[in-house]
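Retro notes - structure team

What went well: the batch runner handled both jobs without manual restarts.
What didn't: labels got mixed up in the shared folder, which is why I'm recording both outputs here explicitly, each with its sequence directly above its tokens.

Job 1
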Amino acid sequence: MSDEDIESKPPLEARVAERCALQIAQTFSGNRILCSSLGRGQAAAALAKDRPEAAVTLWYLDQYWQHLAAAEIGDLDGLSIVCSADFPSGPYDLAVLPFSFRGEAELTRDLIQDAFDRLVIGGQLVVSTDNPRDRWLHDHLREMFPKVTVIAAEKSVGYAIKKLAEQKRPRPLKCEFAFRDGQRLVRAVSRPGVFSHRRLDPGARQLIDAIPWPIKASASQPLRVVDIGCGCGAVGVAIAVRGQSDAVPTEVLSIDSNARAVACTAESADLNQITTLTAKLTCTGEVDHPASYDIAIANPPYYADFRIAKLFVDSALKALIPGGSLHLVTKHATWYQENLFPGWRDLKIQPRGQYFIVTARRG
């Protein structure tokens, strides 16, 4: 494809909820604008173009979507595209939040509370959903705010809330939970939008139990572990706790594309007084020192036609030393049986409850 072809490509159309939110936002003034997005930041880009004097912040929770938006939009004066665990502090005159009815309920509420908190008094919050018969979001907004203006459309519905005072009692949605690994008690932190929130995922439980321990480490070289797609960090933190309690020198690198996952993992390490775990934000699966890790652990998601699972496996292959071991948990072992080649040897697939533990060594 030539540069001319790329330049002539039409921009991707915004999803219906984002179009709805944009149309409402355009009726309000404000030059300090905060936007989230269901896609590639079309509403934020449109507002930045319409208001060249404005400072528009386009926020993403996941670095992968941040990169897609940056590639789609390019350089645009007045627009900054960020990926962070929370919205930047602001303050803002206008906040624009489109949501899908398929989204996570607690994350939706959390983001609404967070955005409202960052508005100046007199600022406007615009919220929309792609469910034209929405009741859930409307009911929650009415519970949270004294006045909610409804703007209905054929395929979506939007809501506008003017900030007249600070929210009195925002609901705390961050939580801590604990689980046992043998005789060890491991504590973890989770937040909406992080896998898995409020509990230890059953697959993670099976993976923790299946990782062999103790592992004898060299006296001069610590055991190096990479936790790929760490989520709330439970598995990597559990391994780090094992190393600390059993006096096995262990270094853990936990990576994820979700900024909250990275923040929760780092906080979980602090909660357990772990100093040998590093949490890093990355959507490419790259590690700082390839071919230097003894163990790679992962609990890959099942969606996206195993493209993310392939990214996890490829990342493990690059991270591990020759002979280093991969340990992952899945409900769909066939894909790994058919695709964990080349580069791997000693492939084993063992059932554990409703899951399978897949192990292999880097060739």
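Job 2
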Amino acid sequence: MGLRLKFNLVLGIAAVIIFLAASYLARIFFMEDAKAEVIRQARIMMESAVAVRSYTVKEVKPLLAVQSRRQFLPQTVPAYAASRYVGELQKEYPDYSYKEAVFNPTNPAHRAQDWEADIINWFASHRDEKEFIGERQAQTGASLYLGLPIEITDPKCLACHGTVADAPSTMLEQYGTAGGFGWKLGEMIGVQLVTVPTSIPYQQAERALQGFMITLGSVIATLLILLNLMLHFIVIRPVRRIAMQADAVSMGTLNVEEISYRGSDEIASMARSVNRMHRSLINAMEMLDSDDRE
């Protein structure tokens, strides 16, 4: 096995190991970065929904208080306002969604599904936790969801959701008495859920990963070519000349030119050693010839 083949075998194994390790670590980095971006989008969307709810409670509901006594106005309900806001957003981004999932809702559209109920129960058993993040396969594809607990902390909520007798008549006319009552202060009744698609960020991460690996492969290939050129001109070609010189001298051909090699590296030291050996053989042969003539 020649020196070049041994050198390339070692370099090839090292290059494959480096490429695979870099690919693994880069995939983790790009995918984690993509997930972080999805979570950031979900949090922005959730903060927007919370802001709309707060705006509705503080500014819209007081303005419509008089009208609400005569007719139930869903625009005064924070959950309705937040859902309508996201509904407008969905016209441009249909894969994004928002829902306030509740065990015992006034509006049947807000009733919690099985997987949403699991999140509510999780918050009920983890009262110190303020956020839940998970992934699931939705109808539109892979999605990440972010949930915030809905807990009854304001006694004013019980004016509409405490007992049927205390509830506004206009609300009863709108939704009836089937649900949305019997809530208690401090009770974990539901969860705010924002769903954000993961396909686009993950596809972008895959493309970025492919670009990175192509670049890394090109760099490794370029380095291998450069190292082979250096090996050829700095090691193999000089060693080949030295070997040919040594072979010629060992076969008795003493009238060959000495090797000219500049520098102070190991190859130059080898060339000087071969030259000294060459001169020593010439001197030895001359001494033998003079002894024979005598």
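One thing worth noting from job 2: The helical segments are 3-63, 65-70, 78-90, 114-125, 158-161, 169-175, 199-250, 266-293.
We'll revisit the folder naming next retro.
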